[in-house]
Specification:
12 strands, 3-stranded antiparallel β-sheet, alpha+beta
């Protein structure tokens, strides 16, 4: 498939499709989904971009030919925020860091955190009152941040979202804006926005370096991620991570370890509130499996319908809704030749909604994941955690956390839409958030 044969929507002369994309990224992507099949060519300024929607081509980009791609240049806007953590680093350094971290993220290792996840969730809902409206996305952010703080760093974060939430929000909004800008003002120029961005990083650095410093001064042993990272040695030269490397990985985990899962749980509760029949079915399964007792690790595998709810939520609202790869050399993807230096966009958000694989793709239907459905479609028709050597390292953690937290809150409460929230829109920042917050009414189950 030569460049000249690739179709795409008409572009403006100067900005290409960037203005239309910035105004409403998801609507723009949905237009591509409706009018083009495997790939569409767009342009941001002078930069050509290939939006790949075909699952087999996506697999080539993320798996079989992953070695000839790096993350797209736009991701560099996260580096002041996340440094050279797993999300942003490349090449041998990325492989080294991932090897050090992988042992603490295996499915078996993650299971030891089940009780902590349950206890945090129960503690969170103790103060919930019946027939009250709650900003559920903030609740889920607080729960997820408390879980990541306890399980990864053995620390309690009191009122953590009030301290860490605002600078993370500031950093995400500004980084997203810069990613979509044709002209990027250097961070060294003290504009108001640059100062806000650097101040947000300074606050987060203070929190993270305090954690590292207190751990360095402690004589106690900690079997958590930070303890493992601090003890880990490179298998080649036996070196340990510097404070800077620890900071970058900790910052990445703080962001990726609570932001994505919190959004996934928020969307699941939103979809259940909108679909009372599905919510009733989830409640029945919880009653059958748990009765009145608290959830235990061995119950997780029995909650098959709740897992389907989570999978369907991740299909419709994948937290990592789009990401880019830049070709290090000319590379053939399917019949598409991607020239060296050019960019491929991959979007779970649109591929998850292709009607070739998902009947009534815009409808919430957890039953579609029954009967080993995933074995009947291409492996990269559904890929909420990415794939290949850069697959989300926390995928097992996220699924276990979402199952335990949602089981806990649904065991005790029903959720309905607030009368003041006629429309809930997704906001595509670095992750896919409910725009303006998510207000739901909670009622205690009798």
């Amino acid at each position: 498939m030569k460049d000249a044969t690739i179709d795409g929507p008409r572009a403006s002369f100067i900005g290409g499709h960037l203005l239309e994309f910035r105004q409403d990224p998801l609507a723009f992507l949905n237009k591509l989904r409706a009018h083009y099949k495997d790939v569409a060519k767009i342009r941001f300024g002078k930069e050509p971009i290939y939006v790949v929607m075909n699952p087999d081509m996506i697999k080539e980009v993320l798996v079989s030919k992953a070695g000839v791609f790096i993350k797209s240049e736009a991701f560099n806007e996260l580096k002041p925020f996340l440094g050279e953590g797993l999300l942003t680093s490349e090449g041998d350094f990325h492989m080294r860091q991932r090897r050090m971290m992988q042992p603490s993220f295996t499915k078996k290792h993650i299971q030891v955190y089940a009780d902590t996840m349950k206890n945090v969730a129960y503690e969170a809902i103790e103060s919930w009152q019946s027939d009250k409206e709650r900003i559920i996305n903030v609740d889920m952010m607080n729960v997820a941040l408390a879980i990541i703080s306890k399980t990864m760093f053995s620390m309690d974060v009191n009122e953590s979202h009030d301290t860490i939430g605002p600078p993370i929000d500031t950093g995400m909004h500004i980084a997203t804006k810069r990613m979509r800008a044709l002209v990027k003002i250097p961070h060294s120029i003290p504009t108001k926005e640059n100062q806000q961005f650097m101040n947000a990083i300074k606050v987060l650095d203070g929190v993270v370096y305090d954690i590292i410093r207190s751990r360095r001064e402690s004589t106690a042993e900690h079997d958590d991620l930070l303890g493992i990272l601090m003890a880990a040695r490179d298998e080649d030269d036996q070196s340990k991570m510097t404070d800077q490397q620890l900071r970058d990985e900790v910052m990445t985990i703080f962001l990726a370890g609570h932001e994505t899962t919190a959004n996934a749980m928020s969307w699941a509760l939103y979809l259940l509130a909108k679909n009372p029949v599905v919510q009733e079915k989830a409640h029945k399964e919880l009653d059958d499996v748990l009765g009145d007792r608290q959830i235990e690790l061995e119950d997780v595998e029995k909650l098959s319908y709740l897992k389907q709810v989570i999978q369907e939520s991740l299909r419709l609202y994948p937290p990592a809704w789009m990401f880019g790869r830049e070709a290090l050399e000319d590379v053939q993807i399917g019949e598409l030749l991607v020239p060296k230096g050019e960019t491929v966009f991959v979007s779970p958000y649109i591929t998850h909604r292709l009607d070739e694989y998902f009947e009534e793709p815009d409808q919430f239907n957890p039953d579609r994941f029954n009967n080993d459905f995933l074995k009947t479609i291409p492996s990269y028709a559904f890929f909420p955690f990415g794939g290949g050597p850069r697959v989300c390292i926390g995928n097992h953690f996220a699924m276990l956390e979402a199952t335990i937290v949602l089981a806990t809150v649904l065991q005790h409460f029903t959720f309905t839409m607030s009368s003041s929230m006629a429309i809930v829109e997704p906001e595509p920042l670095i992750t896919l958030r409910p725009k303006g917050g998510l207000l739901l009414r909670v009622n205690k189950r009798l």
